[in-house]
Amino acid sequence: MQDLVGECSVTAINPTTFDNCSGEITATTNDALTYSNAGDYVINWIFDDGNGNISLATQNVVVTDNASPEAPELEDVVSECGVIVNIPTTTDNCAGIIYGETNDTLSYYTQGVYEIFWAFNDGNGNVSFTTQTVIIEDVTSPSINCISDINVISDSSSTYTVSGNILDLIDFSDNCEVASVSNDFNSLTTLNNAQFNIGTTTITWTVIDVAGNISNCSFDIIVEDYLDVINSNIDEAIAIYPNPSNGNFNVKYISSNNDNLELMLFDLTGKTIYSEEMVKKENVFNKELNFSNLKPSIYQLMIKSNGKTYLNKIVITEN
Fold this sequence. Notes:
Layout: E1 4-7, E2 10-11, E3 16-19, E4 23-26, E5 34-35, E6 39-48, E7 54-64, E8 77-79, E9 83-84, E10 89-92, E11 96-99, E12 107-108, E13 112-121, E14 127-136, E15 143-145, E16 150-153, E17 159-161, E18 171-173, E19 178-183, E20 195-197, E21 199-209, E22 214-224, H1 226-229, E23 236-241, E24 248-255, E25 261-266, E26 272-278, E27 284-290, E28 297-305, E29 308-316
Parallel strand pairs: 1-7, 8-14, 16-22, 16-29
Antiparallel strand pairs: 2-5, 3-4, 6-7, 9-12, 10-11, 13-14, 15-18, 17-20, 19-21, 21-22, 23-24, 24-27, 25-26, 25-28, 28-29
C-alpha cells in the first residue's frame, strides 16, 4: 500500500478492496488512524469477506516536522527599580503556541543591563533561539522637603542645643529605595543634641537613593541672644522663666505688633502635646503655663507670631 506522508499530522482513511463474492470490502484495524507526533508508524489493515476469508496488509505512516518555531523579536524590559520578566511565547507550524525556556533568572532588582537567552522547542527536535535585554535604571531623584527657616533662643551659655527630631528631615521618599540621609552640619541622620552659636546657620539635608540620585534642601536656623530676649527695650523679644522648672513657666513676649500668638509644645519625638491660640492686645504679652502634669523631660515650646516662629527648649524637673 502507498505510504501516508504528512507535515505535523496524518489521518488515515480506511482502504477498500474487491472480493469475488462480497464485492467491495472496507478494511478494519486496531491501530490508530490519526498521528500527530513526528515519527514513523505502521497500520495493520484487515480485509474480511465475512465468509472466513481474511487478507492482511500494512501501510507506512510518516509524520514529519522540519520547521523550527518562529524566533520572536522581544522588546527590551525597562524598569527603574526592579522587574519580574514574563515568559514569552511564539508560534510553531505544528505545535502551535510555544513558551520560551531559559536557565537565566527572571527577577532583576539591581541596577544594570542584563540579557536573557530564550529557547523555543517544538518537542520534535526543532529549536529556535533569541535574546531579550533587561535594563534596570533608576533615573528619578528622591523627593525631599525641609522645614521652614526657624528662630530659636540661645541659653545662658549663648548656644542653642537641639532636643529631639524637631530639626530632622522627616519628609522624604524615593521611588525605589533610599540609601542614605545626612546633613552638612554633623554628617549624621539627626541634629539631636547639635549645638548652634548665636547667628544664622544654614543646614542642608541630602538624600541619596540606591542608584546614586541625589536631592538636597536647606533651611536657616537663626539663634537669637538670650540676653537680648530679656531686654525690654528691643522691639521684639521672648523670655521663658523659670527654666528649668517643675512644670510652671512664665512666657513673656514683647512686640510692637499686635499679631495673635500660637503656642505649641512638642515632646522629644516631635509629638504635639499642647496647642493654643491667643489674642495679644498689648505690646507685652504675659502667659502662665502649667505643665506639671507632664513627666520630667526636655520639651520644645514653639511660639508663632508676626510671621515668625520661635523654638525654645524648656526643661521640666522632678517636683
